[in-house]
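Q: What structure does this chain adopt?
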Amino acid sequence: MTARLRAALLAGLALTSPAAAQTSATIYQDGRVLVRRTVATAVPAGTASVFLTLGPLDQTSLFALDPDVAITGATMDLGLDEASAMRRAIGRPLVFDRGAAREGGRDTVVATVVGVDPERFRLADGRIVFQRPGEPRYPADLVRSAPALRVDLRSGSARRALGLGYFTGGASWSASYHLVLRGARAQVSGAAHLVSADLELEDAEVQLLAGRVGQAPPAMPRLMAGVQRAMAVAEDMAQEEVGEARLYTLPGRVTLQPGRTTTAALFEAVAAPVERQYVVRGRVSWVGPVPQTGDEGTQPVEVHYLLRRERRTDLGDRPLPEGTWRVFEPDQAGRLQLVGEAAARHAAPGQDVRLVAGTAFDLMARRTQTEYATRRDTLRTVVTAAWRVELANAKDSAVTVDVLEERQGEWRVLGSSVPAERLSATQTRFRVRIPARGETVLTYRIQASW
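A:
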């Protein structure tokens, strides 16, 4: 078979095979929606105009999905009211119902619409009147149920379908996760929640883009390069990088309807190691002077859950978009109880997730400043301060509490009753073991300057 004959056969198939409308969409976190649609409509070779009903869209963002098709112009007709129908009828004859019954049917008259604002009509005898001669009967092609788009284009070949891409709005998405504690491991599941304000998609492939993608001011047309960079094709339940953002493809196909929220799984439930940690935050100021405080009273003991995500595991190799995490733990009867809730930012592959999920009921911390002295050293002030932290545990088992001190600039620990661990240039940790139904006292001194 010659190449010319093969091309002719393919062209014939393109003209005779049915083409169902296909839709895919990418929902951005800022509310934008990139829609890609293949619409069944006859497109001749050469220049032509097609009329489509695609719903609200940003006309400046319209582009062709097929490189063999070039869009040369577009006109959006947004009018859905009767005045818009009358405007479309200019130059056409309309049938007007006068309402009075007569033998053989109702009394009607035909008049041509000359113009609107004000409305003018030409009667059969040539007279022009400014009053409607009756109740107009509008043909179906003059009445819109949704905004209509006329697309002027040039196609290299005849086709039965037209692929278009464009931006619209009216939808948003968020993510949530469930962490069910099972001893030292947890069952983790995630879901995406799609909120449609006025966006309607039928049986569409939906992708979610996490990250900040630049947006031109409203008065400027969006650059085609930016549109092309946002486009992607992903595998089922897949994620991938697009530019500096992350793209998630939901499994299956999704239908969105205005005013409804749709939930779809991000991934199937998996097991992963989890650690419960107790944290008491220090009171050394982050920057500037370290104040004299005396007895600072009690403070909460935070409960943290550290979800370990090792690489080369199903959960570890998966980036997680920011969202709300809910932590559950079964009670003695096996009923799941909510024990914490926290928001977490996007986690890259292999990055652990730390959740600050509440405060401990059976743990207590009381802090007292026991020493405070300052002196001037050339152009700076140097302070020496000491604290006593009383930690009490009402649980039936021993626990470890991390006391954290954080400060920017020049500072150091001079001495402590528990070894000080320098986690970074700004953070120091004291790991304090508290016996069951017992107490432990932590003391430490620091020196700082500003």
